[in-house]
């Protein structure tokens, strides 16, 4: 996910000054009031501060750098980076916390005079963080060089920009169709722009970036009439139509096509702010116009509607606790509700992985699925807090994509309907299974199961042919084989669980057997997961601390991946030699001396505590594993260590990429006091709470309240737990207990309770010891 944070004294001083005004804003009682979109915008959090509606199609945000080279775009994956001093413009699409860059479509920069240069980034504007405001659904900043006050808001399918120009100054907009957050020569394959008779500006571009051949159309409607406009194709060095720099026009000055288009629009001197309403579509210009018309009202009306939408969405969890913790958890919940994003047009049309247009009937198509990250906690959080219809839409979107995929498999890492083939596993499978097993309906379960099985049996994908023959992925045939073996085995277990619940005994039996394949790559002699060759031997030499891309493991090493058996931790502990041996190994992981190791070559390795890497997902469940060995108080100690070192209520407050909400969902669950170690088990492992009180306002109308009596720095341990007034002796909650409503109460104390939840019957689910 991330590279290590580098923050100097000057930067720290700037952060503290910039965040001081926001601290006062969090004193209100609601979760909405406490949320701070600036958290994660510095360091390597890769979040953006701009305006977005819950799961909105438009993410309207400033870009501080879009001119990076292909291998240097990592730090600007969200467009905005808190440490940067200038803004290049405001674009319509962004990832929230991704570990890869792309998007940044249709960059607009306000000007108070003609552009004197069309070089990329030439119109950068300085800004001061003191002029910024960021709230869910709203962002504003003053551009120092021009004096323009820029405000952003967004609805589900529209974005609205409002620019207040200095009195007496001509209002100008520069639209750059070249700009992108994944830049290299030839990225834009084609683009077009035109001004329609009614003044609406439309166009498109097709890009070759992280996702290949991605088509996106736009429609822009300014609130004031155009007084002039000029188009330029900067591939050709001929002056045209008022520009003083390079450019070439077309025979018709109202439209232009090419691979490097820039447009300038003039509005004269205005007596009121200029509002610019923008919509996008993956289908066509008419779809973008229809999306533009689907949400009526001016800037203030759409801002108010989106503000109410965020108040409802964030109101799903009421928080009471110390202001810094409340601010972090509220923001984490906010970041958890940005993706997957709506991506079908208002009429239901969407473009699929086959590059064809389809119609969503009875559901809203969503895209932006970072599934290797989000199956762990992000999607389980959405299942718990979001309405059934929203979760059913996610499942239907995944299945619909599979049904039109040229390869017939579920998405791996999809955005804007396009597949990137990034990361490993077939982790749409646990997302679907977990939703079904927790009672989400509104989709064709048989079609979903069929899609899951097809994905798990498509031989050409990621060494699956060898996995099905040998029971493991051989490293001499497929890179990252050790990681793929255990991730496939977990995904297979979730297929078995869903098939069993549907009464499909043959499917359940077949994939239940495959769920045990993790054993085939676990070397009991060394105590580590290891890559094996096709002849059965383990690859040598073996260094459990080595991290190299394309080697035995995916974004990690043997220390992290040896714990990835969420479906059968008890079975893995037995191979280690029992509970005591497992606890010793867990301690060795957290206490490992890294002083002689250098991971600077690996962007995604950050947030190290020994060999535990909180900045990357394979470690996220590990602190909870002490509970599987009958020592839940050790989980409580480690969670305190992680939360205090990995999260801060500041722009650099995330130790690693948020990865479309996964880092944030981890914090939300952990702060509540429980976590879904094995999605598909319908259980949550109890940790310890970090809030005095939290109430879940569940989609079914019930309320589930978590209370931590005596919680303080001096009382970090759980003394006892009650559920609805009755003692709870086990170390896990069942999903049905939460959705039924009620009260979970912790009595916190200064010393560990070494007798609570230690019995084998009190431990969370494991496949080999299933109750």
Automatic annotation (TrEMBL):
GO terms for molecular function: carbohydrate binding; peptide-N4-(N-acetyl-beta-glucosaminyl)asparagine amidase activity. Keywords: Signal. The keyword Signal applies. It comes from the Bacteria. Residues 288-749 form the Glycosyl hydrolase family domain. The keyword Signal applies. GO terms for biological process: carbohydrate metabolic process; glycoprotein catabolic process. InterPro entries: 6-hairpin_glycosidase_sf, GH-type_carb-bd, GH92_a_mannosidase_put, GH92_N, Glyco_hydro_92, PNGase. Residues 1-23 form the signal peptide. Residues 36-281 form the Glycosyl hydrolase family 92 N-terminal domain. GO terms for cellular component: cytosol. This is Putative alpha-1,2-mannosidase. It comes from Sphingomonas leidyi.
